[in-house]
Design brief:
The protein is mainly β and 637 residues long. It has four helices and 39 strands. The protein has one domain. Helix content is 7%, strand content 37%.
Length: 637
Amino acid sequence: MKSKFDKALSVVALSVLGAIGSVQAAPVYEIVNIEDVDLKGNVDGTSRGYALGVNANDEMVGVSKGKKKLSVDDEDDDGVIDVEDGIAPEEAIVYSVFLPIIANNYTFTAEENDAESPWNPNFFSVNGTTAPTDVDDEGDLIINSVDTFFYGINDSGVKVGAYTAPEKTMEYEGEQPDDEEDFIDFWYYRDFELRGVAVTADGTEIDLIPSYQTYVREEDDFVVELGGWSAAAAVNNNNLVAGYASTDIIEFSSDRIDSCIDTSLEEDREYPAPVEICVQADQYPSNGRRNISYQTRAHVWQIEADNTIPEDNIVELPLGLTPDEDSTLNYIAQGLGINNDGVVVGRSHTYRNGKEDDLYQDAAYWQKNTTTGEYEYNWIDPDIFSDTVYSSIAYDINDNGIVIGSLEKYISGYVREKFFYYDINDPAAEIVVPDDFQDGLSDLTSKPKSINNAGQVVGNIEVTFDKDKPRPKAGFLYNLHDNEFININNNLTCESKGYEQDEDGNWTRHQVDVIDGDGSILTYGAEFYVVEANSINEDGTIVGTAFVRKPIYQYDSDGNLIVDEESGLPLFEINGFGEPVTSFLTRMVVLKPVSGNQEACTESDLIEDEPYERQGAASFAWLLSLPLLWLRRRKMK
């Protein structure tokens, strides 16, 4: 199949890749953020970390999540315990206007030239957020209600992402609902669910305010502040930001808001919920949907030298179709990547080949017309197969005009996603689905995330062919020049996989000893495994997410850490054989090509039965959830 689509690369693109491909092919990588047989990969006070973007200066941005129960007082009150993963399995995501809003996502930065420690993840405050470990004057942990996200960074250090509004409270009035166990003092809400933001190198925060924020009911001019939503996904070196924002709401959402208004005006109500609270409840996700949904369009925002974005610098990009005037459907378009020529890539609803009965959400790019200066929508036709492609999406584009994305279709009886690339400079181009670990089209789901100008693509791919259970994933590196597709874990140094060399020159896993409350010693081999690669710069530095092996501790039915009374230490979780068990936690990972002719490590322990699944989502899963879904944790009732 691959040879059929070789023509998709233009002569210009091939000549560029040909000039640099020989030095870029399949480098050996080392993980450079290993410290004390661990990964410096998350903000203090959190359990998981994800690296999402890296620039040419080896500066990166990421998100850390999963707030830990940092300290558990022991019986003698003479110390505290700090365990690695404080998120108990009994805790769950809960959205409720009766519960305080607790943040669970924290932005951070890291850089090679960090004055204290290279690649140390440093908490970065957005909109006044506090670090997970910050305490007040009385020593109590500060509860932060604002979730923050970084998705990209340019070479000037401009960072882009999004954040949620801070928690607001309203005194509760009326009878206590029967389905709530705890006494309710307040309603909890916020002014908006998601707001795009750009943060300049000097720390200036620039809000990307959506055009649609306020609902006005025509019949009585009743005004409801909804807040709308927006997100910034990428920024180029000219400080042009790409993302998406709300432009309207759909009819169903208007009906829901009208119902909130009418209910609030009723005099005889069992539970008198103000409009703000009713609307907030409808903005929270329930069973995978939200009752208030926004019309969403791709946008670009041009940041000026004075760190402002004038109104004329905000451009709504055209949708991939023209909706009927009486349409009640929700049409969505998102900008997710941008190159230094200002070409934006993402996805949009469109009618394939102009047929109104073929409505799909497909990959697209927006490019300025050289005559008018206006952005124009361009569809990327995903259907190179005889059967249907159900959707497609574009994630990134390099300065040579090579777009990367994925398409969704049935393969071997299952819906899978496959990585593709596409050359916008070739008028006759078709998308190319390259071979991965086998000749022809495999049924391994693969998702690209980033491409550099050397034609190197990184992303993640499934690595087993199990049909009916989750498949483990690995970060991949693909070189467009020679069609070489590798599992990054197969091109690591031995130290980067957790091995150490003994006096005889043999490689064995570094042994880690941990003791628990009853004196049990758990000894296990150190292990690192790259599960996704999210960004690659021009020097080949890759950032993403890796597994690191850690012990699991016991929690009681209420989600509290079980602590031994005498030692004050937590207890290991044990399996059916009475043996302590370990699991993998996610950490940010930074990989750099090694110098010289060092060969990749040939030692290998296959990770089995450890499928990597996003916990609450991260990376672009957050970015695509419209708006993002944030973990709100409390004990299950």
